[in-house]
Amino acid sequence: MYRINRSYDIPAQMELPKSMYSVRPVNGQTAGLYSSVNGNSEVTTRKGTLSESNRNSVKDSPKPNSPLDSKSVGKRKRSGSKSPPRNKSPVVKRELHKVGGSKMTNENVNNSFDDAARDAIIGKLEARQKVVIDKLLHLRDILNNLGATAVTASSGGSSAKSEVTSSVEVVVNADPANPPLSVVFLTKLLRDTYGSAAVSLQSYRHSSCQNSLTVNSNLFNKPLDADSKASKTIKVSVIWKRVEDGEPELIVQPSVQAPVTGEANIARYLSRLLPSVYPIHYDTLSWDDIIRVDGALEKAASGVKNLNDLEQQLQNNQPFLCGEATIADFVTFSAVAAYLQKNRKGTEKHPRVAQWLGSCQNLGGFRL
Amino acid sequence: MVAGKVDTGVKDDARSKNALKKEAKDAAKLAKKQAAQEAQGKPDEADSAEDHSKGKYGKLEMNASQNKVQRELKRVSDIDTSFANKSVLIRARLHTSRAKGKQCFVVFRQGRSTIQGILTVGDIVSKQMLKFVANISKESIVDVIGKIQNVPNPIESCTQSDVELVCEEVWIVSEAEPRLPLLIDDASRPDSETGEDGLSKVNQETKLDNRFLDLRTPTNQAIYRVEAAVCRFFREALDKQGFVEIHTPKIIPAASEGGANVFKVSYFKTSAYLAQSPQLYKQMAIASDFEKVYTVGAVFRAEDSNTHRHLTEFVGLDLEMSFDSHYHEVMDTIGNMFTEIFKGLKNNYTKEIEQVRKQFPSEEFAFLEPPLKLQFPQAVKMLRDVGIEMGDEDDLSTPNEKLLGRLVKAKYGTDFYMLDKYPLAVRPFYTMPDPKDPKYSNSYDMFMRGEEILSGAQRIHDSAFLTERAKHHGIDLETIKSYIDAFKYGCPPHAGGGIGMERVTMLYLGLDNIRKTSMFPRDPKRLTP
Q: Which UniProt keywords apply (chain B) (predicted)?
């Protein structure tokens, strides 16, 4: 709430509010949320949250005089699109945050907490923290294993059909003048992986929609097999309607979640429905690839002005933008298709782009 | 002329406060008028001598078709600036009039269009004529001849806002009694404009008691035209698919849907019942090789429920269709029929819908093409995800239906959807069970704005199986003998459903009470008009 630059030190005798975070003093100083012993200028005094300084210090190199270093609890999950789990900063379970939040209000109540009660609560926190750390270690093991297997998994449709783990029904609202073709690609891959009896894509036209669809609507209609007996299915419904800023959005459960906006984010979400060892799955990308894929996604999001940049990028003669096929190709394909709709000249002067378009369409199993 | 008082029948305190205020206002007005008249006292008598407008106004003899006159009546809705300086003849109702000194402003109303008329004492109009016109009671039907002139500033309160009628002749065709039970203006006022500060509205009971006045409001004119359109598009959509319209009897020997909700009538030496639905006869028509039938007719349900969506008599639009291999063929036909109705209304009746929205604001009706189809287990999951507890085979209660409607609207953006595969336990005995899962049935419901409008299913077309299911439900076979007989001599597999015309109109327009869409509604407490 307030950023106060404290030019003075809190004297040791001063009674700070007894919060859950007034843990055993380190370096002989009573440390609390409001402590500025680090000398960091960023000390936020927003009640109920970690101070900026402490959060940062946890992530980066641990400062020796940061009291909450090893006993960090209640780290905030970073908002925004999910980033791949990194070994350095832990991914937090939601309930812990809630727990932290509710516990933090105690700091205002009852300065007369006796030590026994306080220690009991601290003990519980430590137990919870241990659980989190165990889960982190487990996650790290999985990641290490992923690194080994990701390379060996074959691209484009493994012969072993996997099972859908839990039913998913998502709705994509999009402007028909700007159809999100990445959804077509990803649905095809999902159908290849889980079978056409478990994955369906259906499009609807909303009554308020004015524009007409610029591509063949069959691309967006892939129903379940007629005799499907699958108990768990993935159903993607695309609704053509007017959307804000022309950006498509993906809705899962509107009563508890905000919509996912932007084709890049939708592609990330859908790619994560694939089995986690699948190479297109966003989280299987290596660090370098993530940078390249994210870069390409951002470029696609801002629209394609001309094909020169793309031609340049494809100079290295790789079949796809980042080596193997990634969601960057799908989303860029969508943007390029929208561009080509308006510029009839096409790809005459851009042979590599034409070639890349061809390989994408082969992967997707359709022709525009 | 003192405005007619709204006789709302003092029902509660707020109303009597309003009425008291109105009375005080009227008394003050009356006192002022008398004072003014006294001041003008002498001139009134003096002018009775010379009336140069004699023969240009008066009350016509009652029209008993005395003579055939060829004359051209113009529609008020057609009059615009292209008529400037032309003479026109209109027949309209006198909506309001306001006299001030030597001028009188009148508003003439025809259907949903209004135009302002003006009389100024001068060469054409005498004082007596002005007095006569100012005293014509509201709602009287008048013939007016006058010249159209353009107005510099648009007249906000009239639909034909850029012209005005300078009256030369005014004749009363049919006079209305001076004290009206309700004022058209009050009845067409949106709720947002009424309140403590004097503007009153008419409550529903009064409106329904004086339906022939209430129906004159532009809103009601629009509502019933939309209702007529619903019927029309229903017929058109089905005729295109090769359906045949049939008419089924309403006096039947036994209760068709079972139970207590049936009206009994005396039928010569015995008694008979009023049909609760044309179900039995639709199916007989299918068994009689008509393949695809629909019927539009009255449905009588003696349910003692006084809710916003139940009537004892309403118009049912029912259809039944034989199919080739799967009942989804019928479901898709019904879904497409609805889409055609919605699209037809959206494209052709925008003016009417806007008119209704002026008095009863609502959100535009949103739908998907093709219509959204959900499965019952999906719906249960959606409800459970927000905390509702219900079993797999429970029927949806009305609040749950409404909640589900809102959830579907939030996720898919549609006010209309179909719910397939209802649990067998909550459906009537003639519903075909699901072959793959005995808990469910081949039945479906359709919803608009979270309220159910259609219930349908694949029917059992085999008499042996039907008998078995009837026994299972504990139904006395004697009472349904003729029903089972219909399927004894070969019947194709078929499915169908029925909708309530009033309910569909009410939900499409976003109205809150079904009595608004039934011209002369019938409910447990109302038998007239």
A: Aminoacyl-tRNA synthetase, ATP-binding, Cytoplasm, Ligase, Nucleotide-binding, Protein biosynthesis
